[in-house]
Structures are given as structure tokens and as C-alpha cells.
Amino acid sequence: MNAIQASSPVAQIVADHPACAKVFADTKIDFCCHGDVVLADACAARGIDIEDVLARLRTVATSEAPSDAPAIGIESSTAELVAHLVSRHHAYLRRTLPALEPLVAKVARVHGAHASELRELFEEFHELRAELEPHLDDEEADLFPMLMSRAPDRARLASRLAEAREEHRRVGRALTRIRVLAHDFRVPDWACGSYRMMMSELAAFEEDTLRHVHIENHVLMPRFDAPVS
């Protein structure tokens, strides 16, 4: 396992230490759609102290609890990765999206006069759900079977991978907007129980979706990219 260094690509850090994803989410460092950027450059772009981030990452990595579940990473087979994505991350989104949207709508309706950004938050979440649900269906019906095929149409596969990556970029931008509108998921003193639950669920939703996209972008899809001649 690679040591965490300023020169480490941020996607590699998360691949080696999944718990570090939360540090990147908290510091707004994109390890999904721009995961090839090295940590030093990512911190410089955000205007944050590299030494502070390194210390936080190393602390998290050192204290990371071992999991009883099989590790999912670069050495996993395509079948293992697809099964993990569908059973873990797709299933999570299929449960969470329809349950969370009414909660976000309720909080926006009750507290929107007090905090107008909650109405924008609902619109952003609603649009993201409308993007994600067909994306899950399309991956399970078309892209994943193509990746599992012994002899996929290479031109069509390249096109589908490009489409998926662009969809992931849109998801990443939407998650960033949601975090901004939610004020980094901080809960104001006047918040009711529904408001507090919404922020907790949105933070969990962000964390799971970022891990999900990271696996697809940086573990699964690169193995199907055509080599550069």
C-alpha cells in the first residue's frame, strides 16, 4: 500500500484508504472526477494548507478500522466490481433517493421563508435524482453487461465510457452545489428534527455517491480504456 505523500494522486489515496474520502469531502477536494490530480496541486487549487491535510489524511489512514468485507480495489475482478457497485452503491441510491427527496421538500416548505437557499437545495436535489435514477438503469442494462462481455464493440464501448464519465462530472458538480447550499451540512441552532435528519442524510448521501463514482472512474473504467499508441 502506497504511503500518503504530497505527490500522491488523490484518487490513489482513497483507493488505498477509503476512509480518507471524508477528509476530501470536508476540504472540497474532488477525488472522483479529478482524481488524477496530486494532493499538493489539489490543496493549492483550494488554497488550503497541504501539511494540515496530510496530517488529517495520515491520522484517518492510521486509525482506519479493518473491514470484514472483501476489499474492493484495483485487484478486484470486473465481476466483483460490478457486483459491489450494484449491490452496495446502486441499491443504496435506489433506497435513498425516493426517501430523501420528500424530506428535503418538507424542510424547504417549512423553513424556506427563513432560509431561502433550502428551496434551491430542493431543486438541486430533485434534478440530481432525475439524473441519477436513469443513469443507474442504463449502467445495469447496458454499460455493465458490455464491460462483462468477452468481445464488446470497442467503438461503442469507448462512446459509452465517455458518456458515463460526463454524467459523473455532472453528478460531481451537483453534489458540490448541494454542499454549498447546505452550508457544509452544518445544522443551525433553530433547526427542527427533520432539518437535522435531512443534513445527516445528505452528508451520508454525498459520501456514498463520491465513493461510488470513484470506484467507477478510477478502478473499473480505466481497465477498458484503449491503450495510447
Helix content, binned percent: 55-70%
- Biggest β-sheet: count, sense, barrel? none
- Averaged pLDDT: 91
Rough shape?
Answer: globular
Distance between the termini: 30 Å
Return residue spans where pLDDT drops below 50 for at least 5 consecutive residues.
Answer: none
Total E-strand runs: 0
Order of helices and strands: HHHHHHHH
Secondary-structure-derived class:
mainly alpha
DSSP helical segment count? 8
Number of domains: 2
Radius of gyration: 18 Å
Bin the strand percentage.
Answer: under 5%
Lay out the secondary structure.
Layout: H1 10-16, H2 21-27, H3 39-46, H4 50-63, H5 78-111, H6 117-148, H7 154-181, H8 193-220
